[in-house]
Amino acid sequence: MDSYINKEVVIIGNGPSAISLSYMLSGHWPYYTSQSHPNEYLHRRLTDESELNKSLVEQDLEMLSDGLEGRSINKVSVLFDHLNHPEADFGFENPSTLEWRHRSDKVVDHVVIGKGLPGGAWHSMNDCKEILTISLGSWMQLPDMDIRNWCSEHRRESRVSLSTVANYYNNYVKTKGLMKNFKHFSSVTSLEFDEQTNKYRIDGHDSNGNHFHYMSPRVVLATGNCDRVNRMNVPGEDLPFVLHSLNELETLIAESKVKPSSDPILIVGAGLSAADAVIATRFRRVPTIHAFRRHPEDPSLIFNQLPENMYPEYHCVHSKMKGKFTSSCGYEPLAMHCVKEIKANKEVLLLNMIGVDDTQLTTCVKVKVSYVLVLIGMKPNLNFIKSKSLLADLGIKKNVAIDPRSNPIAINSYTHESLASPGLYAMGPIVGDNFVRFVQGGALAITHHIHSHNNNDPSFCQ
User: Fold this and answer.
1) What is the pLDDT of residues 249-302, one digit of tens each?
2) Which of 73-77, 136-140, 287-291, 345-349 has the lowest mean pLDDT?
3) Whose CA is closest to 350, among 301, 295, 296, 290?
4) CA 102, CA 29: separation in Å to the nearest integer?
5) Where is the FAD/NAD(P)-binding domain (predicted)?
6) Which of 3, 36, 50, 424 sits most deeply, having the most CB atoms within 10 A of its CB?
């Protein structure tokens, strides 16, 4: 074990979740400073005499979170969002009720290991200058650094491009002095618990082939959800004209490989990425066929959960998916269709899953395309966890692969510690927090739990 470097915390992943946690572990703590809050009950709890001048890290998060509701399954994520973005779910952009103070005596020695630049998967979208984030720009920012003051791109309504967000995250780490804690272009290949030392062993290598070894009592999984694209597993999916990312679409458009005179591009999927692709192709008047498995009125579709006044372009796509306003516009929706086969001559066979008559017999549609763009989601890769039993026990559903939607990692909602392995934490998409505005709550929960143990202080919520 002589070659192992000891750290108090090792964070695997370097996206917005990991960056937020690194900021808090570096001694930057949030304080409630508002004179009022829309939630009077929460305001009273935070201004109780015994809690005055205390950081949220030092308070009882379970008590503060009690009774709050929001768009996260994790209690502290909801609490933090209520304080950082008051009434955000009603479409308001109210100022944060938090301020950040540096506590040099509370710095935790840690390292953040990521495969690329700080920002994680956002850098895979670094060339996406035309596609806007689903969230308001202010909801994409990290603690104590306003994204609108940072950039000059704030043009179209309240949202910013994907490439702007990627550059903001990388610059945030530099501006906040966190770079010393980040190990870039590095991959973890092994995570194991060592019973002799009662610590985790973390092994890996950088892009130059140099190996690294860490030992730590606490490891945080902040790997995000973009390691591997979901595949259709149909014949022809590996043909060169079949693409799986918005970045590849933007390259096609930039190089004029698709244009109004091209054969249609087939977009497969019914999520926001697919909608972004439709917006991009139709803006360039590229003929588009859009195939998706579900009915457009399905309540589980994300479009049916977004306020129309905040996301008019997505609701425009949704209307077209229903067959409205599509005549002579170069867009053809194929609801409840799935790809059956892609042929080398660029013909695609699509299966109609509901049939066309009362017999419910399926029928097929054949289309000629220029490209196929498959955007049906992504999944994390946790194969570096070497204990198969631990990997099998991580999720809410045991012996089922981790999936942010159907099987997130099972955690204590107030500490984000794994229910399967003490000292192992998880945050971000792999625990169901897919929006950046919620991941900071996970960072607060983990920071709170670590400091409660470091101080062994009964005033902390255990």
Assistant:
1) 988 988 999 999 999 999 999 988 898 899 889 888 999 999 999 899 888 888
2) 136-140
3) 290
4) 6
5) 162-428
6) 424
Q: What angle do CA 450, 120, 413 make, to 5 degrees?
A: 35
Domains, the chain, ranges and CATH? 5-227+379-455 (3.50.50.60), 231-376 (3.50.50.60)
Contact partners, residue 13, CB within 8 Å, separation at least 6: 112, 113, 114, 120, 221, 222, 223, 224, 428
The answer to whether the beta carbons of residues 409 and 430 sit under 8 Å apart is yes
**Could you tell me which residues are beta bridge partners of residue 395?**
409
By CB neighbour count within 10 A (0-12 exposed, 13-18 middle, 19+ buried), where does 258 fall?
A: buried
- Neighbouring C-beta atoms of residue 222, cutoff 10 Å: 32
Q: What is the DSSP letter of 277?
A: H
